[in-house]
Amino acid sequence: MEKPLVKFYYKNVTEEVLGKEHGITKSQFDELEKKTTPFIEELNNQRKAGKVKYRDLPYQADTVSQVKKIAGEIKDCENFVVLGIGGSALGNIALQTALNPYMYNLDDKQRKGPRLFVLDNVDPVQMKSFLDWIGDKLDKTIFNCISKSGRTAETASQFMTVCEMIEKKLGKSKLKDNVVATTDLKAGTLRKITDEFGFRSLEVPDGVGGRFSVLSAVGLLSAAVCGIDIDLLLAGAADMDKRVSVAEFYKNPAAINAAINWHYYTRGKKISVMMPYSYGLKDLSDWYRQLWAESLGKTKDLSGNDIFVGPTPVKALGATDQHSQVQLYREGPNDKLFTFLEVEDFSDDVIIGKSPDIAPELAVLSGHKMSKLINCEKIGTEYALIASKRPCLTVAFEKVTPYTIGQFIYLFEATTSFAGMLFNINTYDQPAVELGKDATLALMGSSDYAQLADKIKPFKEKDNNFLI
Ligand code: PA5
Questions:
Q1: Is the per-residue pLDDT at 1 higher than 70?
Q2: For the segment 403-448, what is each residue's pLDDT rounded down to a tens digit?
Q3: Domains of the chain, residue spans
Q4: pLDDT at residue 400 is higher than 80
Q5: Nearest to 153 by CA among 399, 446, 430, 420
Q6: Would you call 323 a catalytic residue per the annotation?
Q7: Which tens digit of pLDDT belongs to each residue from 188-214?
Q8: Are 6-48+232-423 and 61-204 equal in CATH topology?
Q9: Atom of ligand 1 nearest to the CA of 209
Q10: Is the predicted pLDDT of residue 109 greater than 80, yes or no?
Q11: 191 partner at 20 to 30 Å CA-CA among 33, 106, 121, 383?
Q12: Burial of 189 (0-12, 13-18, 19+ CB in 10 A)
């Protein structure tokens, strides 16, 4: 299979499968087609006018060569540590989990590059444990600080902590060897520091929000360093670019995906569950969660009216969460749309061991490929959900390779753009994230946020009347 594909399957949301109440009827599909088709042209035009910058990421030859140059210079390091959060971390994690082996960090034989750590939190216990481990390995460790602004409290604190450690243990002159910055080309705190210290650096492209940035230098460097074929990743995205630009609704997987999601949202199914049946794909749901939530959760529509819109993305993992969530998914409120991720041909397989003589009832499993079991689990769960009239979509990966992961990422980014148009909102801003970020800096004592600090005061101390 030279060019494995990602395919979108939507029969299990139709009236034919789910009945009239929960399935989409032919005339409703006609309506969806009518409503969505103009947005395909509009998005293509916006993109041509340079207003949807993430759409051009698969074609950034200069970025790719800069990424490869730096990856080549640092390829002998033993540990590669990403310091970043949100859009500066989730894509890196998703690529690594999808495209490198489960035991990558632990088994030298399974590794094609350095160990990868993505520190996307400021948990002191986690950080201390990590610093204790990495402390005597700093000379073989590269830190990639990823932050568009450089003022994000989490990333900045990690960065300063690590820099101080490098300075103490290796000397200040080593900072420029051990830190690579991925940040704004011209402005911002991390750019200022980068220029002062002479770090190697890559660009967070202008006009591309963090959650749309995985195919830029933000996601590409850690992938390239860890042996992922970034050319194939981008080629897959470019392939999907063609498919999601097709003017015909029924041939455009992003348009139809967005339309189905919008249809259900407006009919009370406001929760979107993404459930991969593959451990490798599990962190793509995490990446999707941010993409969907930050892009579509908005107070105002484009005319400034209050709409308080936004589907709630939920991640689940098959088969694990069958034993945790499916009771709710089948018998609880019928308020969810399910998107399964399915792998047709797994890159590796295991034959299930023989059953003990004393337990002949287990013989049914024995001798089968584990890939058959996990895919039967997927079909079984989907069947059970359909029996309860729950709508189900499937994104099928012919194989999981950089090429199909690139397709998937681009498919969901374009789906998000179409969904934003259907909801009539600004898909690309995230004003609500900023208040929490500013409040943190205010609480930490920043004079830039003194007024905000006053407003927060009543919330700083717990009221004992309500503390039991
Ligand atoms: O999607 C987004 O814009 C956010 O999740 C940001 O990526 C995140 O807040 C990190 O911001 P920065 O890159 O400025 O550190």
A1: no
A2: 999 999 999 999 999 999 999 999 999 989 888 888 999 999 999 9
A3: 6-48+232-423, 61-204, 433-466
A4: yes
A5: 446
A6: yes
A7: 999 999 999 999 999 999 999 999 999
A8: yes
A9: 3
A10: yes
A11: 121
A12: middle
Average pLDDT, the chain: 96
Label residue 151 exposed, middle or buried (CB < 10 Å: 0-12, 13-18, 19+). Answer: middle
- Whether the per-residue pLDDT at 307 is higher than 80: the answer is yes
Q: Is the CB of 148 under 6 A from ligand 1?
A: yes
Strands 392-397 and 6-9: antiparallel
Residue 26 makes CB contacts below 8 A (sequence gap 6+) with 15
Q: How many helices (H) and strands (E) does the chain have?
A: 17, 12
CATH fold group of domain 61-204:
Rossmann fold (3.40.50)
From the CB of 416, is ligand 1 less than 6 Å away?
A: no
Residue 28 has pLDDT above 90, yes or no: yes
Q: Is 7 a catalytic residue?
A: no
For the purposes of burial, counting CB atoms within 10 Å of the CB of 118, is it exposed (0-12), middle (13-18) or buried (19 or more)? buried
- CB of 406 sitting under 6 A from ligand 1: no
Q: What percent of the chain has pLDDT over 90?
A: 94
Ligand 1 nearest atom to the CA of residue 146, by list position: 13
Global pTM value: 0.97
User: At 123, is the pLDDT very low, low, confident or very high (cuts 50, 70, 90)?
Assistant: very high
Q: Please say if the pLDDT value at position 459 is more than 90.
A: no
Determine contact, residues 213/413, Cβ cutoff 8 Å: no
Q: Say whether 294 is catalytic.
A: yes
Adjacent-strand bridge partners of 315: 274
- State the alpha helices, DSSP H only, in 111-229: 124-134, 153-170, 175-178, 189-197, 217-225
Q: Which CATH number fits domain 6-48+232-423: 3.40.50.1110, 3.40.190.170, 3.40.50.1820, 3.40.50.10490?
A: 3.40.50.10490
Q: Which ranges of 388-462 does DSSP label H, i.e. alpha helix?
A: 402-423, 431-443, 450-460
Ligand 1 contacts CB of residue 88 (under 6 A): yes
CA–CA separation, 66 and 72 (whole Å): 10
